[in-house]
């Protein structure tokens, strides 16, 4: 039996068509205005620059605008906070993305948390996380929310299933665990201090790899029929999970690349369009 | 081998002595001012009235003042929000406790979340939860934070241990899971939709019962040597866990009553004193 491929690339493309229609409709009812995502890039890290560019491109593909803010690597916390407050106040900006990571001298958490809740379309604030965890309205953190959207698109059942999340980062493992819990899965959160990781993973109906180490999670730790979600990406198209042997015996697998990756940016623009609709009116 | 009794009553009493000294010291340096906890009771539920009274008594025992606000059961969300805003603005109030539950017509979540972060000494806001979960400074939710304080007082090792939390309520299961995770435990969150609950509990080094059903968690589901924390309380002094048979073979047990219960109120006043010190100065 061959695993179902959870094709994030295809779902993202399909969603972009729907988002294009929504943006076009919004233009009609709002005198040609579109949702605008402000992207903030601090410093000159080439990978970060590439990510920001990809996000701007995704906005353009669906007819949205992006406002690209670039700040020097010497930027202070106060300067970045001032810029975020300015964007919070700007009525033309519907979403704010602060590209992670920022240079070391900046208090990244303070800057994330300065983003207004209704513009936190990347889902990075503590307030948004807390609200999401408690079942209140809030934009979800982009990568885990993208994973949830992907699982939902393929009707993957989560209720009562045992989901094991490996990793506990603020923008992946922790929100992922809370989203799976709110979808009625039983959730285990593992991390670098976990003992008997293979044994715990053996019990997983759904496994999410979010450790940031190439193929750290071995295929033979995973039981037949599991749903395998790989949120990692490493040079050469390798994820956090040894996916090869699972293609025959998992029930579903997110490929690397083309699984979780495209859903992250897609969720960012999806939530930006939602925020734009709330401000500009749905027609 | 007899289980260590995690004696919350004794720890609470010992902590009250320390808190009394801190309050007395604060009075000295602040012209006889003390930390003040505002308690809000809405309606005439006798159990809630008793809890609020117990909290007021605990304040008095350590020399703190409490400001008791009582509102009729017909109170609207807007009226309660107005009262909370007033207490937020009142510089003499250092902590705010809104007694749960409030009457049905009130949006309890909105009212909880209206409490200013620095006065959220009961740890009920979404923002406080999110900050705690992300490792930022925030008062912990009183019951799970009380449990963490109890485990710490008895040097219970959590790092790398498998902790299973049964229950996922906003003020118990969810914050408990995040606190245990931040203490480097591997954490599993179970709930009413969990399948194979006995089997999952069998793997627990630390088990926290927070389901609200008398002795729902059976002793024979729990392995020898586990640390057993019972956050339930039912008439007749029964908890959520069948504790009797565990007294011989668990490594540690919170008794019911006298385990978790006293730590909840103790944590509330502990955090109120902390808030008072921050405002009135530590001398």
From TrEMBL, chains A, B:
<keyword id="KW-0560">Oxidoreductase</keyword>
<feature type="domain" description="Tetrahydrofolate dehydrogenase/cyclohydrolase NAD(P)-binding">
    <location>
        <begin position="142"/>
        <end position="277"/>
    </location>
</feature>
<keyword id="KW-0511">Multifunctional enzyme</keyword>
<keyword id="KW-0658">Purine biosynthesis</keyword>
<dbReference type="InterPro" id="IPR020631">
    <property type="entry name" value="THF_DH/CycHdrlase_NAD-bd_dom"/>
</dbReference>
<keyword id="KW-0368">Histidine biosynthesis</keyword>
<dbReference type="InterPro" id="IPR020867">
    <property type="entry name" value="THF_DH/CycHdrlase_CS"/>
</dbReference>
<comment type="pathway">
    <text>One-carbon metabolism; tetrahydrofolate interconversion.</text>
</comment>
<keyword id="KW-0521">NADP</keyword>
<keyword id="KW-0378">Hydrolase</keyword>
<comment type="similarity">
    <text>Belongs to the tetrahydrofolate dehydrogenase/cyclohydrolase family.</text>
</comment>
<comment type="subunit">
    <text>Homodimer.</text>
</comment>
<keyword id="KW-0486">Methionine biosynthesis</keyword>
<protein>
    <recommendedName>
        <fullName>Bifunctional protein FolD</fullName>
        <ecNumber>1.5.1.5</ecNumber>
        <ecNumber>3.5.4.9</ecNumber>
    </recommendedName>
</protein>
<feature type="binding site">
    <location>
        <begin position="167"/>
        <end position="169"/>
    </location>
    <ligand>
        <name>NADP(+)</name>
    </ligand>
</feature>
<keyword id="KW-0554">One-carbon metabolism</keyword>
<dbReference type="InterPro" id="IPR000672">
    <property type="entry name" value="THF_DH/CycHdrlase"/>
</dbReference>
<feature type="domain" description="Tetrahydrofolate dehydrogenase/cyclohydrolase catalytic">
    <location>
        <begin position="6"/>
        <end position="122"/>
    </location>
</feature>
<keyword id="KW-0028">Amino-acid biosynthesis</keyword>
<dbReference type="Pfam" id="PF00763">
    <property type="entry name" value="THF_DHG_CYH"/>
</dbReference>
<dbReference type="InterPro" id="IPR020630">
    <property type="entry name" value="THF_DH/CycHdrlase_cat_dom"/>
</dbReference>
<dbReference type="InterPro" id="IPR046346">
    <property type="entry name" value="Aminoacid_DH-like_N_sf"/>
</dbReference>
<comment type="function">
    <text>Catalyzes the oxidation of 5,10-methylenetetrahydrofolate to 5,10-methenyltetrahydrofolate and then the hydrolysis of 5,10-methenyltetrahydrofolate to 10-formyltetrahydrofolate.</text>
</comment>
<dbReference type="Pfam" id="PF02882">
    <property type="entry name" value="THF_DHG_CYH_C"/>
</dbReference>
<dbReference type="InterPro" id="IPR036291">
    <property type="entry name" value="NAD(P)-bd_dom_sf"/>
</dbReference>
């Amino acid at each position: 039996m061959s695993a179902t491929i959870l094709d994030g690339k295809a779902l993202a493309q399909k969603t972009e068509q729907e988002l294009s229609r929504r943006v076009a409709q919004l233009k009609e009812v709002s005198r040609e205005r579109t949702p605008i995502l402000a992207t903030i890039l601090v410093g000159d890290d080439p990978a970060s620059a590439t990510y920001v560019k990809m996000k701007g491109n995704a906005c353009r593909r669906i007819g949205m605008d992006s406002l690209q803010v670039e700040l020097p690597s010497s930027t202070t916390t106060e300067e970045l906070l001032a810029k975020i407050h300015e964007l919070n106040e700007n009525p033309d900006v519907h979403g704010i993305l602060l590209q992670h990571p920022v240079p070391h001298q900046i208090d990244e958490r303070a800057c994330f948390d300065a983003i207004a809740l209704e513009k936190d379309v990347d889902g990075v604030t503590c307030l948004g996380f807390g609200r999401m965890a408690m079942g209140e309205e809030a934009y979800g953190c982009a990568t885990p929310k993208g994973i949830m959207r992907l699982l939902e698109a393929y009707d993957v059942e989560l209720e009562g299933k045992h989901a094991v999340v490996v990793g506990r980062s603020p923008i992946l493992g922790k929100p992922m665990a809370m989203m799976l819990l709110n979808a009625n899965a039983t959730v285990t959160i593992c991390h670098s201090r976990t003992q008997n990781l293979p044994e715990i993973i053996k019990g997983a109906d759904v496994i999410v790899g979010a450790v940031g180490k190439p193929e750290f999670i071995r295929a033979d730790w995973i039981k037949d029929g599991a749903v395998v979600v790989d949120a990692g990406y490493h040079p050469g198209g390798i994820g956090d999970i040894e996916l090869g042997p699972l293609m025959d015996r998992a029930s579903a697998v997110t490929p690397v690349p083309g699984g979780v990756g495209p859903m992250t940016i897609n969720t960012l623009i999806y939530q930006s369009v939602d925020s734009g609709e709330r401000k500009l009116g749905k027609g």
